[in-house]
Amino acid sequence: MLTQAPKGTQDMLPSDAHRWQKIEAAMRSVCALAGYREIRTPMFEHTELFARGVGDGTDVVQKEMYTFEDKGGRSITLKPEGTAGVARAFIEHHLFAEPLPCKLYYVSCPNFRYEKPQAGRLRQFHQNGVEVFGAKDASVDAEIIALALDVLRACGIEGLSVRINSIGCPQCRGAYQAALKEYLAGKLDSLCKTCNERFERNPLRILDCKEDVHKLTDAPEMLDYLCEDCRAHFAALREYLDALGVAYSVDPRIVRGLDYYTKTVFEIVTPTEDGELTVCGGGRYDGLIEQLGGPATPGVGFGMGVERMLLVQQMQGASEDEAPLYDVFVATMGQAARLEGMKLVRELRENGLRADIDHACRSMKAQFKYAGKAAAKNVVVIGGDELEKGVVKLRDMENSVEAEVARDKIIEILLEMKGE
Description:
Blueprint: H1 17-33, E1 37-38, E2 44-46, H2 47-55, H3 59-64, E3 66-69, E4 75-78, H4 83-92, E5 102-112, E6 124-133, H5 138-154, E7 161-166, H6 170-185, H7 193-201, H8 228-244, E8 249-250, E9 262-272, E10 275-284, H9 288-291, E11 299-305, H10 306-316, E12 328-332, H11 335-350, E13 355-357, H12 364-373, E14 378-382, H13 384-389, E15 391-396, E16 401-406, H14 410-418
Parallel strand pairs: 1-5, 7-8, 12-13, 12-14
Antiparallel strand pairs: 2-4, 3-4, 5-6, 6-11, 7-9, 9-10, 10-11, 14-15, 15-16
């Protein structure tokens, strides 16, 4: 156990780092173009934040949170999702006093949920996400859906489908929940244990049950109960998506699993051999900031799991090979040459070239063998003869061509070879 990662967690190894970095870079680039700024919040928060924000009747709060008492007797929870923490920061630091809308994003944000580990779903997982506060128009709902598609496509993920729904607001949802409970009451005996548990505290979530979904095809739909404002908002969302050229379908079964959602909810899915996989989900949460003690401020956002994106990339063959570790490896023979090699490596790095030198005191043959395994494009050789003549030997590893080059010209030549 000492040398095994805890169940539901995994290591990011150096060989995988470039895949994470590409996803993070895509998120940063797309968000920057749309005026989003990065935010980072603590890995843990006061438990009450999630009970009030996410909802104490949700599965997340009831069953999945990692909660503990700290040494000061305070109840602390490792955050199970990103939105509540960002909302808390928005209130605490009075970001509502700045020009609105406040457009924020986060990258590889660690989250924790105690649930059965599955492919692409771990107990410690990471999310990219955006949160927008202070914009009530459906145009921003459409913007973040388009933005999410841009990020996913920039990561090479294809076959994406957008599904949207509206789950109304507190004013119109009450009538729908009453109709839904009336419909479900006669079916409880045939539904799973989890659905029976949800009946009183969160009946909407029953519609999201993978085990019983085929039994609920004739359930009443929230779209039929929307108030005038929610109906207009949903119609506007569809118009904006059409204007942006974003293809979508309306799926009345999308409800999401957190209590703070209102009006727009959406998911982006992609097909796999094992069925469809959701790679992004989000929606609007117009009452969250006020519910947490801040001023009434509309909000909307999404989250996309990094591990799921990596999994889909792998399934679709979108993963790129790792770039060579070095542009240049410096091989030396003798202490004087080694000192000169250390100096050269420093100069190479200062000029933007990835470079290294042997630190394991290998033979010249072993140094070349290591450079080959590291896929170094070039090897610079320095020995006693080269030092006396003021030159180095430059070996093109791909073409097995070697040339003698003046020491004071080597950096210029290597930069030219790299195209800089």
